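2024-03-11 09:14:02 INFO queue: dequeued item Flavin-containing monooxygenase, len=364
2024-03-11 09:14:02 INFO validating residues
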Amino acid sequence: MGFLDFPFAAGAAAGSRDPRRFPGHEEVLRYLEAFARRFDLLRLVRFETEVLSVRREDGGRWAVTSRKLGEKGSGDEEFYDAVVVCNGHYTEPRIAVIPGVDAWPGKQMHSHNYRVPEPFLDQVVIVIGASASAFDISRDIASMAEEVHIADRSAPASTCKKQPGYDNLWLHSMIDHAQEDGTVVFHDGSSIKADVIMHCTGYLYDFPFLGDDSTITVDDNRVDPLYKHIFPPEVAPHLSFIGLPWKVIPFPLFELQSKWVARVLSGRIKLPSKDKMMEDGKAFYLKLEARGWPKRYTHNFSNYQFEYDDWLAEQCSHPPIEEWRKQMYAVNSVNTAARPESYRDEWDDEHLVAEANEYFKKFL
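2024-03-11 09:14:37 INFO prediction written
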């Protein structure tokens, strides 16, 4: 998951303390800090500064208003030729709609606010979701809670089964409704009295600082219109977005997106006409419809992230994503499904690890 020319390897970054192949978030932070130091990026970052608004001026430049956290007033306005939006999409929680939940007396929270399992001691917890956060948090909470029930909308309506390896963890179909007496009813008709509903339901794209002059809208988590998930055709290349795709290896993809944007802004790469960029976006939406994917999966790259990466690399005259990296991602996806409780400690791709370590030598 490291940047392409800065290996994320045990002991590679200054201050590395977690040698595990699947390290904790503290090690990821140390890696990012080491990357910033290595390439002298900190001098370019204004920490604790909020962007209040980004609006387009008559001459095509962008007025950016920002303010230091804790300060009052209207903020400082500066003018730029281009704006690249990199604010991420793991801040604004997406909350499941549950009929009757307003009268339900329990506590609701989102995975964004989850930290440790101890507050759930002896409680009955429902975890909504079927992806990584739901999987990890449900098992973490199960170490303390009386019962944990996972509600998965993709599970058949009749689903109600105990999970292997646990005496207090069950998988259900989605919640049907909640009741005033604390009962939560699932689609299979089963019900429990729960203390907490944990929403592991993802996030919303949110750009509160952008106005209508950005020319983009967000509808059911589709940021539209965008050329290659980056440039709004109407105002390209002077407004762009980095990091919208999900179900990806984020750092290499963001790096290649950034290289492409930099080359476009510097004039080394010329974008297609506005009409051609719009046509490309419409063709992409037709492919999603043919695949049967809902609109909210517009930026889900689970099936074609490397195809996209390699397209970006080709645009930038950069080598494609390394074959060992692609294979390692595929093998570990299979391993995670086969060994959900132990994939962090057991794997069968040591040959790929060795190949990666040999590749890293040119950068270490």
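2024-03-11 09:14:37 INFO annotate: Residues 113 and 361 are 39 Å apart (CA to CA).
2024-03-11 09:14:38 INFO item closed
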